[in-house]
Amino acid sequence: MDYMDELINDFQKKTNEFLAQHNYDLSSQKLLYHYTSLEKFEQIIASRKFLFTHYENLNDTLELKYGYQIFEKLVYETKVPDADNYLKNLKAILLNHEIDFYICSFSEQNDNLSLWRLYGDDGYGVALGIDPNFTLVSEKKVENPTISAAIYKQATFEANFKKLCNRINIITNCSKYLVLSESRQKEVLKHLYSHLFVYCFSICLVTKHESYQHESEVRLLLKDGRLSYPNEYQNGFYFSKDRFHLKGKSVDKTITFLDDNLAIKKDTVTVEKNSILSSTLDDTFLKTIYLGPKVPKGTKLNYEKLLKKYNFDITNIKIIETDLPYQ
């Protein structure tokens, strides 16, 4: 290993260190809440698995674009070498599935009106309080999702990203780099940028506009693809085909708009939904169930019976009827 390889390895360690700062703090042991419909609730308790949706099928389709635009601005500000090519490749990675990420969303809030409306079947569903450790039966490293709190403010990662860019500038301007052959210089820069790609991509996946801050979202992420786990899988890591759930299922969405003749129109567009099932969770993952504000009062016993049907120990699970006024 030569001096440049050492610098590249140090740079990778620094990117990983900065990324780890965004990992969710498990020390508080606060429960995470997943808002869902009754149908999906039964699927979850029957299988002990959660559904992770491909990042391109997020409800807010502008999220990745928002994150990319922030990094685009910062890259030009820091004046890293070959900035245009770096941004071109970053955009291609976001769009061309060189890394595939699958996301399952949770919240730190157990009774949020907006979340009931958007994700809890308009108040008829449930919010599942789960152990944040997401303890799986499988012991494979690749089955353990990365847990990250959503980032709502650019300042949260801006300083670290600038430090990484400045480190690239220092490396590419040092005497030992400048005496390298042109091909070796390109190779070193390629390695540095590959680690910066992973940093930017990972941050983009958990960055949301500050107007969503009320959701207090925490994201669980599973990843595969050509650039995933490079130390363990030299040719990339990919989940087996049987793990995919409803692969390519078409979901119709209605769009309402005002046309040029001032007539109100409704169009239906079809969206391909790609999802993957998590590995099986340990039976103790479920701690609390909040019933939606529109769930009929007095039906708590039915939920206990459903849990018993799927062999859950209900003595360790709290079922709570919400008092949120919502009709």
From TrEMBL:
Species for this entry: Legionella taurinensis
Record InterPro entries: DUF2971
Name this polypeptide is given: DUF2971 domain-containing protein
